[in-house]
Amino acid sequence: MKKKLRFNSSVIHGGQSPDLAYGAVMPPIYQTSTYAQKAPGDHKGYEYSRTHNPTRTALEKSLAEIEEGSYGFAFSSGLSAIDAIMKLFTPGDEIISTNDLYGGSFRLFNKIFKKFGYKFHFVDMQNVENIFNLITEKTKLIWIETPTNPMMNIIDIKSVVKYAKERKILVAVDNTFSSPFLQQPLLLGADIVMHSATKYLSGHSDVILGAIVVNDLNLSEKLAFIQNASGAVPGPMDSYLTLRGIKTLHVRMQRHCENARAIAEFLSSHSAIKKVYWPGFKSHPNHEIAKSQMKDFGAMISFIPQDLSYKTALKVIKKLKIFTLAESLGGVESLVGHPASMTHASIPKRDREIVGVIDSLVRFSVGIEDLEDLVEDIDQALK
Ligand SMILES: *Cc1c(COP(=O)(O)O)cnc(C)c1O
Known about the structure:
By secondary structure, the chain is α/β, with parallel strands linked by helices. The protein contains 14 helices and twelve strands. The chain is about 35% helix and about 15% strand.
């Protein structure tokens, strides 16, 4: 049996071995749609690239290893991965989801799957009791995102799992914000872990890709069927880029977290800032849970200016030079976003303000540049 690798080794070697054809150390980019067969059905395991492609297989094995799961699946985007998970269910099924949710997931649930007869409930999962009150015999899935976006609330994965297991309800975790470097939901008992690999996994803002990892054979067969039948697969080039990104996940995440910690502290001591949302603060309401289920506190920070005005928030965003105003997160470069008008624009104003996404909220994705440059940039913008 192959020796099980520790995390920092598995990101580099997980699922990969020198290429059988020429010994290429890096997985080749098999840019092909089809594969020669000796006789009908007599092939080397690959017949058509929607079903399988060797570059994608290498990525899928790597994804499974770094999430400590048995089966990995790559999709053409994070949302198409969520779409595939939703197709495990049928009309009438009920799904309980975090209320403070990635805007695109909310849109997919509410504007697409609701129409097909699915019933969604959106609740504040910081208090796990809120979930229990909504359970019926039709509840099939609990959808967790932690830390949440953009309020950085933390949900206690283990507590949700314990309750769900007793009732045979599946638990899925969108692990995009943490990456498996910080948090491995399958080890906490979740059934499904999902990623927008567009973010930290690929890490360089140059690819759109989604991932799912599970342990259960039956679940994996259903997902493989959906992946092939619906066909939202990534190409070999994007699979390769994601594999390349994963090889430095551990060193990037260390620096992301280091920089974020210093910036969160800088912001919270700044007189122009009213409130900073980052789970690493002892005063954060879910700090203890974050400490117990995450290795560090991540590199996403949200804040509001002292005067709570949209105008001030906009001014700060405009004055920043290194932090680029853009959608997305998790790349090596620092980005700034305005959730109310960008990532969360698809959520009605009243709904988003209930969870705290007010017009003056600003979100940072802290990159891995020199900390001093980042702090100086923020300082001049706040002045
Ligand atoms: C970006 C994102 C998604 C969607 O992923 P895409 O790759 O953009 O389709 C889902 N969940 C979270 C938390 C995200 O940040």
